[in-house]
Backbone:
């Protein structure tokens, strides 16, 4: 039975079936946002959610049974813990004071699509691994923001106090500029007082937008390459004892055949 459970959870069809159930769950959650659909099909939506939750529980049970009695191996995998937590949250009763929490818990089931698709897991793993490396980039960006915020407050607070009145407002204004949201309006307003103010804005756009964002992209791409290499190493499953014995047996048979052919060839040569 354990071997059957292992074969089921490892089969591609089972993986695609779970992905289909997750998509069905997303559709049901979307239907719950429509009052008309809830009035007409509320009963079917409720039963659909129950069936989806039941299938998720069966999937988790199969995975736990497949690694039994070493159940800890199931919870050692972070994505399994993630899936199991979502299942537990989905068991919250959807009535009374917990109704809103239960709806939000059902919404989390859509996140299971990340754990069900290997490519999405790779992307999320890459982003998580990039966080420590991004700390240095964030520190550099904070220094640049602080310098430009203080300079902007000193230069433009008298002419445009709405955007440069104090340090906090100046930082928010710089965030608006770095997103390239109508930053030219701010620049032209400043240029009305200081014609050379464009140097301040253009230099910050170059530093904040092009340089810093490209640094973020470089960090993510570098960690993505490392994550891909680690995944390739994990996919290289070492040969089992039976496979090694079969290869050894085939090698012995080939050597015996070669020895026999050599023994037949010696009389002919003499």
Residues:
């Amino acid at each position: 039975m354990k071997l059957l459970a292992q074969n089921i959870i490892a089969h591609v069809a089972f993986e695609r079936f779970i992905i289909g159930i997750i998509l069905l769950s997303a559709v049901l959650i979307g239907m719950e946002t429509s009052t008309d659909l809830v009035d007409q099909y509320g009963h079917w939506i409720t039963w659909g959610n129950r069936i989806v939750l039941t299938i998720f529980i069966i999937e988790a049970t199969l995975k736990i049974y497949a690694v039994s009695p070493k159940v800890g191996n199931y919870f050692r995998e972070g994505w399994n813990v993630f899936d199991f937590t979502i299942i537990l949250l989905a068991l919250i009763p959807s009535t009374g004071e917990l109704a809103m929490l239960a709806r939000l818990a059902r919404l989390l089931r859509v996140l299971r699509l990340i754990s069900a698709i290997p490519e999405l897991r790779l992307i999320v793993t890459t982003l998580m691994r990039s966080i420590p490396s991004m700390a240095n980039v964030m520190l550099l960006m904070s220094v640049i923001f602080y310098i430009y915020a203080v300079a902007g407050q000193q230069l433009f607070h008298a002419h445009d106090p709405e955007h440069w009145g104090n340090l906090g407002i100046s930082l928010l204004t710089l965030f608006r500029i770095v997103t390239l949201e109508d930053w030219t309006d701010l620049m032209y307003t400043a240029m009305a007082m200081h014609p050379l103010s464009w140097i301040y804005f253009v230099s910050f756009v170059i530093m904040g937008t092009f340089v810093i964002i490209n640094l973020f992209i470089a960090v993510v791409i570098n960690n993505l390459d490392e994550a891909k290499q680690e995944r390739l190493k994990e996919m290289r499953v070492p040969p089992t004892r039976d496979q090694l014995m079969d290869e050894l047996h085939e090698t012995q048979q080939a050597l015996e055949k070669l020895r026999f052919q050599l023994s037949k060839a010696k009389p002919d040569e003499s």
